[in-house]
Prior knowledge:
- The complex is a heterodimer of chains A (81) and B (448).
- Chain A is mainly alpha-helical and 81 residues long.
- Chain A has one domain (3-79): Non-ribosomal Peptide Synthetase Peptidyl Carrier Protein, Chain A.
- Helices cover 56% and strands 0% of the residues of chain A.
- Chain A contains four helices and no strands.
- In chain A, helix 1 packs antiparallel against helix 3 (40-54) and helix 1 packs across helix 4 (69-79).
- The longest helix of chain A has 15 residues, at 3-17.
- The radius of gyration of chain A is 11 Å and the shape is globular.
- Chain A starts with a helix and ends with a helix.
- In chain B, strands 8, 11, 14, 16, 17, 18 and 19 form a seven-stranded mixed sheet that branches.
- By secondary structure, chain B is α+β, with helices and mostly antiparallel strands.
- The longest helix of chain B has 22 residues, at 226-247.
- Chain B has three domains: 10-135, CATH 2.40.50.100; 167-215, Dihydrolipoamide Transferase, CATH 4.10.320.10; 250-447, Chloramphenicol acetyltransferase-like domain (Chloramphenicol Acetyltransferase, 2-Layer Sandwich).
- The chains are: A mainly alpha (81), B alpha+beta (448).
- Chain A binds chain B through residues 16, 18-20, 33, 37-41, 44-45, 47-48, 51, 57-61, and chain B through 168, 188, 193-194, 267, 270-271, 274-276, 278, 280-282, 321, 323-324, 347-348, 351-352, 374-376.
Amino acid sequence: MTTTQIDDAVRHAIGAIAPEADLSTIDPDERLRDALDIDSLDFVRLLEQLQNLTGVTVPESDYAKIATLRELTTYVEAHAG
Amino acid sequence: MPSLGADMDEGTLLEWLVKPGDVVHRGDVVAVVDTAKAAMDVEIFQDGVIEKLIAEPGTTLPVGAPLAVIAGEGAVEAPAAPAAVEVPAVAPPSEIAPVVESPLVRHRAHELGVDLATIVGTGPGGVITRADVDAHAPAPPPPTKPIPAKPGRAAAIPTQGRAPVSPFARRRAAELGVDLNAVQGTGPDGAITADDVERAAAKPETAPAEPVVAKVAPAAPVVPDMQAKARAMRQAIGQLMARSKREIPHYYLSATIDLTVATDWLHQTNVDRPLSSRLVHAVLLLKASARAIHKVPEMNGFWVNDEFVPGDGVHLGVAISLRQGGLIAPAIHHADTLSLDELMDHLRDLVSRARAGRLKQSEMDPTITITNLGDQGVDSVYGVIYPPQVALVGFGKVAERPWADGGMLGVRPCVTATLAADHRASDGHRGGLYLAAIDSLLQKPEEL
């Protein structure tokens, strides 16, 4: 997947969970839970969306590594085929 | 107009999903009603044929006002037609809001399929009692779970198979004059999103105008504007919480619970699971809170007419924050009997429907409420009880804390559980036992 495709996938997944979020105003280094006001259930739903779009499955042990938008994008880039 | 919660005085009919002549069965969703908090599906109480729709979409009516006339086998009419257009003050007393104080009675009526508006209460001051509801119950026992969208009934009620619509999309449709029936949804399960509505509005009208005009019911549902809605929600929450603080002598307790075993078990359980079936901490906390009721049942129920009325099951109200602001606490019925996986499914479903603004009236009857603010990072939450319930359990964040045990200091994942309880119904000693029971259950997560 190209970086643009991954970016699009991340945007799409976030849009499905927090439809009113404006990604252009989100600090890529702010914690997603704070930036998007999402809870643990939303977070799992976000990862599910992302899995459907990119095929990347995040094990629970990696949750802590993807707290921000930048970390999430980087993680998917590293694991996408 | 059904009562969809203790804080509801009136509701706005958004749309009819049936028309005169339609055959309806108990449990079918027949209309969507907007309350101060959310749009809710209104389920019919009885089998029958829709004889007449009384209320127009867009009309705001007090609880108890008649919405439609149903010709049923037992010929029990949903509140009689002649009083339909009268203001409540003029309408005969039995046709205004039935006097029901107890959600327990409401719940019983739901279970038995009894329309409370048809009952004259025999309790003090005309209050409808459980016995009144039982006396009006139809002879055959009702099926336990009504299934709103049975494909087999699609012929009789064409609108039943319709795609879900978010309240925002509904609002846009009303603003843009878009007929939702003509919109192709692209959201999950074919849900119609605001984008779909806008796309449909942008498209030139291809269908001839006449069939649209010929429709029986107005196509575009009417929706109050967003700011007014936010104000109404704040007012509804404000009134209920003020009533709670005015009437309920709260007492508060807290206990910090070691979640080492539960957290390890959760990680172990989730490691081989796909994302869609992973469990979260909240499910363990909910299940333990529900099961602990068996030890201290006086936390579960209602304070009505100066006495405690136990719940007829553990119907766990889950406080859900809405993305547009405000909160709502619909029930997961019989949460104590559900497996953790079932509870997780129920929770996911409830949260997504609450946020999409599609709850059912039968879900508005919790017997105890749980609020979990851990994801917002708070350590503990001392809640305000939802009247007429008698207890509210709060959970803060699950975080590593220093923990002394056997003279040794270690670091363990912990959560602070709090209890706000009604001192009229219980004392601190019993409240303490309840929190201890939750703690003890969380130490054996595999048995939850």
